């Protein structure tokens, strides 16, 4: 599906403009404290002409045949474009975690690292993370590394999504 830049795209958002829209696909997850799993996911990036995108993601756990077993993670936030490819991501999760990420976007790639993580009393301990998003052959590929529950930073999620 061809993608056209919106007329009202803020110039600071140019390096991440390729992310706009709805993406769907499948991924895998793993971590020392949980059993490996497969999941389906939908990511939505919207904008209104100001220098940020609203971001919403939802996922669901699937079986080996891709059939939905149950709901998974939900996160939402704002990808703030600061010019010259600099970005900030403010992100909240349904699990009681809020994060601030800083990074850079260039050439169809966005790399982010956590600066701050806060959590509610009932949330699991998360101490940091890294995210890499890339435009590969028109698909959105991403990988998430996580440091949580006493574990060092390591791979946690990876997926390939197609533009809906």
Automatic annotation (TrEMBL):
Cofactor(s) recorded in Swiss-Prot or TrEMBL: heme b
Motif GXWXGXG in this chain: 21-27
InterPro entries: Calycin (IPR012674), Nb(III)_bact/plant (IPR022939), Nitrobindin (IPR045165), THAP4-like_heme-bd (IPR014878)
Domain (THAP4-like heme-binding): residue spans on this chain: 13-163
Pathway assigned in UniProt: Nitrogen metabolism
PANTHER family: PEROXYNITRITE ISOMERASE THAP4, THAP4 PROTEIN
The name this protein goes by in its record: Peroxynitrite isomerase
């Amino acid at each position: 599906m061809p993608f056209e830049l919106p007329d009202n795209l803020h110039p600071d958002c140019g390096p991440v403009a390729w992310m706009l829209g709805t993406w769907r696909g499948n991924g895998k997850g793993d971590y020392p404290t949980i059993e490996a799993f497969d999941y389906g996911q939908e990511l939505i990036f919207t904008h209104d002409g100001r220098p940020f995108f609203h971001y919403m993601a939802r996922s669901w756990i699937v079986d080996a045949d891709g059939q939905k077993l149950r709901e998974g993670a939900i996160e939402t936030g704002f990808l703030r474009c600061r010019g010259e490819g600099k970005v900030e991501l403010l992100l909240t999760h349904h699990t009681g975690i809020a994060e601030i990420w800083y990074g850079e976007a260039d050439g169809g790639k966005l790399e982010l690292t956590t600066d701050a993580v806060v959590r509610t009393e009932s949330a699991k301990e998360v101490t940091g993370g890294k995210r890499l998003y890339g435009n590969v052959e028109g698909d959105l590929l991403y990988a998430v590394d996580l440091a949580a529950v006493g574990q060092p930073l390591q791979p946690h999620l990876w997926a390939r999504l197609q533009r809906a």
